[in-house]
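Dear support,

I submitted the protein below through the web form. The confirmation email said the job was done, but the results page showed an empty box. After a refresh the structure appeared. I'm attaching both so you can tell me whether what I see now is the final result or a partial one.
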Amino acid sequence: MTADPSAPWSGARTLYWFRSDLRLGDNPALAQACATSSALLPVVCHDPAQDADTRWGFVRRGPHRQRFVHDSLIDLSTQLQARGSRLLQLSGRARDVLPALARELQMDAVVTEDIAAPEEQDEVQALRAAGLKVHTRDQSGLFELADLPFAPHKVPDVFTAFRQAVEHAMVRVPRVEPVPERLPPAPPGPAHLMPPPPPPPPPPPAKDDARSSFPYARHDFSGGETAGLLHLQRYFRGPLARQYKATRNQLSGTDYSTKLSPWLACGSLSARQIHAVLLQHEDRVGASDGSRWIVFELLWREHFRLLHRRHGQALYRARGLSQLPAPAHDAVAFARWCEGQTGEPLVDAGMRELATTGYLSNRLRQVVASYLIHDLACDWRAGAAWFESTLVDFDVHSNQGNWLYIAGRGTDPRGGRRFNVQKQAQDHDADGAYRALWLT
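What the results page shows now:
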C-alpha cells in the first residue's frame, strides 16, 4: 500500500472511528492506522439523531436498518476480538464523545473514512474544531480519486459522460487490501476512571417474513462482513451473475438481483471486493451481459458518490440542482403512500413490502418514487426521508441522487422520470402475482 502523507505518524496512539465501513477487509484507512500506531482503539458512535423523528413525523432510522447495523457491529466486534482488539461502542454524537475520550486516553489522532455527504463532513469538521487531529480517507468507492481523469469536484453531471470518461481513460480499480492479521493493542491509560457510557438501545427483533426478497432474519442474509463475504462468493459461484441483466427488473425473490446493497450500504463489503470477485467469475466462465451490467450498476453508485463531491449541500436543497420552485406537498396523500393505501395496486403492494421487510426491488423504487412526485404531487424530500427510514440498504449518496433524478431536480438530462404505473404493472407483473403477494 502506498504511504499516505496525511496518515498518523509512526508510533501514534490512534482512535479508529468506524462509520459506514464496518469491515476489516479492504479497509485502507484501518490498515494504515494499524501499520503506524503503537496503540489503537476502534470505536463506533451511536448518534441519537439517527433515531430521532424527522420533520415528516417518523423516525429517521427504522427497525430494519437498526437490526441490520446491530448485527453488523456484532460481527465486527467478534472479528476485532479474534485479532487481539476490541470495539468500543459509545452513545452520542462523535463531536460530543470522541474529544473527551481522546483527552482521557491521551490519543494522538483519529482515523476515519471520508464521507462526502454534508452531515458527515460537518461531523469531521466539528472534531477538528475541538482540537483533534483527524485523518480521513475515501475508501468505499470503486476508484481512487487521484486516478480519475478529472478532478473529483469536476465530475461530469451526466452519467453517460462520466462512464465514457472513466472507460476511455481505463481507470483501474485498486486491488483489495487484505485483513490485518493482528491489530495494535488498546491504549493503556486511565480509561477505568471514566464513567461507563450508557449502552445503545436494544435492537428491534429481526422480522422473518417468507415473502421477503432480503430476509435478513436468516443467517445467510444477516448483517456483517462474514455473511456479506459468503453471500458475495455464493452469488458469483453459480449462474446468477450471467442472468442478472435478464432478471434485474423482477419484483420478488432472493435471486433476481445481487442483493449486495445492504452490506455495501453499511460498509461490510466494499465495491472493490465485489469487483474483484466479479472479475474472478469472468476469468472462470467468461464475461456476459449480466456480469458487465453489474459493473454498470457499480458505476452508477460511484457517480452518485462523486456528485456529492461536486455539488455537496446543493443536493439537499428543495430545488436540488434545478431552478424549479419548491415542491408542493400533500401530507394526507403522503401518509397514504407510506401506508400503501393510495388505491393504485402496484404502488400499494410495493409500499407494503417496503414497510414490512425493509427492501424493495430497484424497479419498484423508481415506480413508487415517480408516483409520489408526479401523481400525488408530494415533496420528493419526504419520499427520500421515508426511504432512509425504511430501507435496510439506505445509502446517503445513492438515495439522494436517485430521488433527485426521478424528480427532475438532479442530473437527469431528460429532466426527470415519470413512470406509467399501469404499463409498469403490465410489463413486470402481468399475471398479478406480486400484487396478490402483498395485497392479500
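Response: this is the final, complete result; the empty box was a page-load delay. The radius of gyration is 22 Å.
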